Amino acid sequence: MKAILVDAEGEIAAAATTPLSLETPAPGWAEQDPEAWWAASCAAIRDVLARRPSARVEAIGISGQMHSSVFLDQRGAVIRPALLWSDGRTTAECREIVTRAGGEAQLRDWVCNPALEGFTLPKVLWLRNHEPQGFARLAKVLLAKDFVRLRLTGSIATEPSDASGTLMFDPANLRWSREMLDAVGLPLSLMPDVGGSAEVLGRVTPGAGKLARLEPGTPVVGGGADNACGAAGVGAITPGEAVSSWGTSGTVLAATAQPRVDPGLRAHTFCHVAPGVWYVMGVVLSAGGAFAWYRNQCARELAEEARDDILVDEAAAIPPGAEGATFLPYLQGERTPHRDAGLRAAFVGLSLAHSRAHMTRAVLEGVCFALRDSLEILKALGLAPAHLLLTGGGAKNAFIRQLQADVFGLPVTTVNREEGGAYGVALLAAVGAGAFPDLQTAVQRTLARRPPTPPNLDIHRAYEEVYDRFRKRLVAART
Prior knowledge:
- The structure is a single chain.
- By secondary structure, the chain is of the alpha+beta class.
- The protein has helices spanning 34-51, 91-101, 104-111, 120-130, 132-137, 144-153, 160-163, 178-184, 206-212, 226-233, 288-298, 307-316, 356-380, 398-408, 421-432, 439-446, 457-478, and strands spanning 2-6, 12-17, 31-32, 63-64, 70-72, 82-83, 140-142, 157-158, 169-170, 175-176, 193-194, 200-203, 219-221, 224-225, 242-246, 250-256, 268-271, 278-284, 326-328, 346-348, 388-392, 412-413.
- It is built from 17 helices and 22 strands.
- The strands form 9 sheets. Strands 17-18-16-15-21-22 form a 6-stranded mixed beta sheet, sandwiched between helices. Strands 1-2 form a two-stranded antiparallel ribbon. The protein has a two-stranded antiparallel ribbon with strand order 3-6.
- A hairpin with a 5-residue loop joins strand 1 and strand 2.
């Protein structure tokens, strides 16, 4: 959990983080306790305010992981741990959704997206199918950031960017899809009201204010989904802009002036946090998460504070293509373009001549190739960007920035802020507080782009063959 404090000029005055744990009760499952999110939120807010005790908070914005399901009863109590975006237990429920809807063509029309394990609706049906006693208590389904809003303000609400990822919202028409809900036999009453991302949707209650050391009555805006806020945090809120993001997962998204849907439903179509803007996004389930897994398993002897830098420096000394070593980064299955929760990771092509440095390079290249799969889909939809903005872990290291430029064959650039989604949602809070008339103005007044990193065209041409090898080895691994 991260909290940042942004001043009137857009400078980051303070930042704090509080760790969270992840539970994996079975292979492919991923859960967290929503109340732990709230406790960590209060701790991070207290910490950040303690660093600037004279600060007066004018407004609060919240961003968080998409899709993750919080099941609440009539009293607002949590029924069971939340099923996270990376949880893959709902394959049967995804088939049930397609059957009840009458085919994927209806999903394109109703919700602009495929039925995938990560989305919220399959998780609700899993609760109904596997834990009927819990489902009998179910009164509301909330997303991660909206649960924090509930505890902070007492208000049950969401906004379009996060609602888009539930498979129960119609992004094209900005409403809950009664057609989808009726098809699966769920009542509209399960869903929260929908407001604007920069609209005040609640105010801090006295009880929450005491826990978080915030003034009661402080306005809390709608906020947004992590990817949408991450794009806003680097200024990608207008059609034609595109972003590559490395978090635990990875994404490539392009903003559009109207909802555009991939005919094969390999990519997602969601509402942006800027009014009247949508985006098409490809998702890699293990990006920074793949590197973190590899680091924790294969470099435990390195000093923790220097581990990442040492590994990346070693990889930089290895030629492009890792001398035949390939990493398929599918530790938790994959969304784009494979839509296969059962897909798994592998090192392929290893020999006695390969070292840890080769394996590290293969991991970094594998993540870039998986992201390029998404970029190729955007291009096929006519969303071919001239450059890519970078955010997340892949934006912070010069070698990884250059690697992305070389693999994508595009210039990449960063901005003068490194807080990603947290900064984007801070700008939404500033708009809600009246500091800026709209998000576009907020972006123009606070963000500046750094000089781009161009691709090395010779290396990019070499990577065309390596990328082809990556895709062929995936086909071989799946068969």
